[in-house]
Amino acid sequence: MVCWYAEEKSVICSLNHFTSTNKFNEIKKFHGQLLRKGFLFSSLDVLTKLMYSCITVASNKNTLQSLTSFISSIRSQNPLPLNILLAEFNRNGFFSLALRTLSLMHIHGVPLDSYALCSALTAASSANTFNFGKQMHTYIVKAGWSGSVFAGSAVVGLYSRSLLIDDAEIAFHEIPMKNSVCANALLAGYGEAKLWIKGIELLRKMPLLNLNYDPFTLTAALCACAGLSAIGLGKQVHAYVLRTNSGLETDVVFLSSLIEMYGRCGLVSKALQVFNLSGLEFGEKKKRDIVLWTSMLGSYGRSGHYIEVVQLYRDMLVEGVRPDKVAFVAVISACAHTGEVDLGLSYFESMIRDFRLDPGTEHFSCIVDLLCKAGELEKAWKLVNQMTGKGLGISVSLWGALLNACKDRGNVNLARMAAKKALELDPQNAGVLALLSNLYAKFDMWDEIEQLSNLMKEQGIKKAAGCSWIEVSQVTS
Q1: Longest Cα–Cα distance in the chain
Q2: Which helix (H) or strand (E) holds 285?
Q3: What is the average pLDDT across 186-206?
């Protein structure tokens, strides 16, 4: 038994090596040896690992052919090896191969159980092949799997990730015996669609449905509280966790959501208290996860505590935490607001030189904003053109930032070019036209203002009124 296990383990290690080094010819030779020894079909683990290795290492031209050949060669109706293969494809991001595997299983008469159906629905939502997912939903109903809480949860997840919330709600209500997983799938959809109130309503119904709150549920509750600025309810969630001793006091995802909730509701001191406590374990200091640092950086930044952002970033480096791209967005943006151009540029250079991170659109946007606030409009314009040359997407908000800086500095020519670029991306953007109109008014360019006004009337463009969320407490005497 020990010898058999050792040989099986050795075979799987060899296949892992060939897969990681993309040695397709070696895998084919190894396949022949396994067939000659009669070892291949005596172990499900070896069989599925060999299939996964051959299919993923094969060239794109041969991938589907290899998959079809393997499944055709398996004359067993046992779904287990193919279910494992489905899971492997999903885990490693080969979603189209996972869907193809399910199709071939169906063609060859291999039974589709709830495990296979759930894996396929996950792959369909991840690969954005919504039509395939809908076909899977139809099959689930026809095959009598609609009563399964596992299959039902996967269907809810499919519609939620596609932001088809009405369909997700229908699928959720059709599950006869619900659990927390299907409720969490719907909560995730509400969160993605920013339907915070619906999320809170579902959270309040869960005890009536005999559904327990798990870590995902409570994290989703905090996200909804942050979206609604419902600080009172957010404090209740925090108190519930402390009261129930659920172990979430050390959960990184929950703690980061708690920090962001307090930060978005304006209680930065409370967010800092949670952050500081997360760095203690049994009264001694411990190294905090980068997610907690970026959550606190974001809380400081959103509340206008830009000096504290820079100081917290330095504390993070002292603690030996490697910053990620999110941290650099926060600290460079803070430098833009404090006017520390050289410091912001040095952080940008450090990101590339010291931490080998490739800057994205959001980092270049922060640098453009930094230069604009310092009045370096020509440098900002050149940087935007460099971004275009590198194929980075330029957003309307970036052109708007440049336009706003031109308005403050009185650069009419550059403002016109920035406005033109912004309107090419969003012709109905009233904010861009309003900024340009304000600039014209600053220099008494009334003819240009009239032209803009006529343009807005012709195209039916109206400036939307701004609004803010606050929580109003009733004080009774």
Answers
A1: 91
A2: strand 284-285
A3: 95
- Tell me which residue of 462, 461, 464, 435 sits closest to 448, measured CA to CA: 435
460 dihedral zone (left: phi>0; alpha: psi -120 to 50; beta): left
AA letter at 279: G
Which residue stretches of 38-94 are H helix? Answer: 44-57, 60-73, 80-91
What are the residue ranges spanned by the domains of the chain?
360-460
Grade residue 409 by pLDDT with cuts at 50, 70 and 90.
confident
Percent helix, strand and coil across the chain, each to the nearest 5: 75, 0, 25
The architecture CATH gives domain 360-460: Alpha Horseshoe (1.25)
Position 265 scores a pLDDT of 93
**Would you say the pTM of this structure is higher than 0.85?**
no
Answer yes or no: is pLDDT of 477 > 50: no
Which residue is associated with the tokens 């629905």?
A: 121
- Tell me which range, 68-72, 117-121, 400-404, is most confidently predicted by mean pLDDT: 117-121
pLDDT greater than 80 at residue 226 = yes
Residue 474 CB neighbours (<10 A): 4
H-assigned helices in 339-475: 341-353, 361-373, 377-389, 396-409, 412-425, 430-442, 446-458
Q: What is residue 468's predicted lDDT score, i.e. its pLDDT? A: 60
Amino acid at 81: P
Q: For the range 125-133, what are the long-range contacts, defined as Cβ-Cβ under 8 Å and sequence gap of 24 or more?
A: 125/157, 125/158, 125/161, 125/162, 126/90, 126/93, 126/95, 126/161, 127/95, 127/96, 127/99, 129/95, 129/96, 129/99, 130/158, 130/162, 132/99, 133/158, 133/162
Query: Cβ atoms within 10 A of the Cβ of 357, count?
Result: 17
Residue bearing tokens 């994290």:
219
- The rounded distance, in Å, linking the Cα atoms of 124 and 96 is 8
